[in-house]
Amino acid sequence: MDESPSLLERGLSTLGIQGRDQVLETLLRYVREIEVWNPTYGLVNAAGQDLIIKHILDSLAPWRLLEELLIECDQAVAGNAAGKAGESIVGPDGPKSPERSTLTDIGTGAGLPGIPLSVIMPTRKFKLVERMGKRTTFLESQKTILSLNNVEIIEGEAERAVGPHDIVLFRAFRPFSELKLFKSIWKALKPGGALFAYKGKQFNAKLELAGMAVDPVLAAPFAQAQIQPVWVPFLEEERCVVIVRKPRL
């Protein structure tokens, strides 16, 4: 008997995710699609319960931290817009609606964490950036099958993704020590924006951050980075996220 639906449902409940019936249905369809495409496309190195725990729930586990960061970045974006000389925040029909921050998932692979997050955050716009054509084919299919109207698929290298970006997130991606890559990403990040990096052990994350001290551009903001522990339901492995904010103008 396949216990994946029950496992995912319990995981969503534990994480406090709302609208679970529709979310559960969509995520289970996504899991089935990964398992169908995986033998040919090599999307993830997991199946069944491992796929649910190590990829879907792992992607969703820090959602509250991300929501808090989104609110913070919304305020920063609004502040930057209001501060631009000559730019009106009042339209012909009254005050303009505040601009909402967009999330850019670089090196998304099978759509992780972007697709699971887009399912539980339907009012947020997501850009999924992936350099491999066969994976973008899979992602485009999922956008249609899962009716992900808040998702845009972009084929290309992460460092060439056109900015400016509000929040850049990544999971199972390259380490911060690849300075050339992260300087490009940082340059494309909006003032008041942030990096949201899924990492494993906090100790290893601290070592990565310490290595940024050699770069004159990245040293100061990365020295102020936050490391937040993350608990993934049913996973007995350490997880954390690293949040690096870009100063406002």
| CATH class membership of one domain | Alpha Beta
Structural class: alpha/beta
Spell the H/E element sequence: HHHHEEEHEHEEHEHHEE
Principal-axes geometry comes out as globular
Question: How would a textbook summarize the main sheet?
Answer: 7 strands, mixed
Level-2 CATH architecture of one domain: 3-Layer(aba) Sandwich
Query: What's the name of the CATH homologous superfamily of one domain?
Result: Vaccinia Virus protein VP39
Output the radius of gyration.
18 Å
Helix content: 40-55%
Could you name the ranges where pLDDT drops below 50 across 5 or more consecutive residues? none
Q: Give the end-to-end Cα distance, rounded to a whole number of Å.
A: 56 Å
| Total helical segments | 9
Overall average pLDDT: 92
Share of residues in strands:
15-25%
- Kindly report the spatial arrangement of strands forming the biggest sheet: 5-4-3-6-7-9-8
Indicate the CATH topology of one domain: Rossmann fold
Number of E-type strands:
9
Structure in a nutshell:
The protein has helices at 4-15, 20-41, 48-60, 63-83, 114-120, 133-145, 179-187, 202-210, 219-223, and strands at 90-91, 94-95, 103-106, 126-130, 151-155, 165-170, 189-199, 226-230, 239-245.
In terms of topology, how is this protein built?
Layout: H1 4-15, H2 20-41, H3 48-60, H4 63-83, E1 90-91, E2 94-95, E3 103-106, H5 114-120, E4 126-130, H6 133-145, E5 151-155, E6 165-170, H7 179-187, E7 189-199, H8 202-210, H9 219-223, E8 226-230, E9 239-245
Parallel strand pairs: 3-4, 3-6, 4-5, 6-7
Antiparallel strand pairs: 1-2, 7-9, 8-9
Helix pairs in contact: 1-3, 2-6
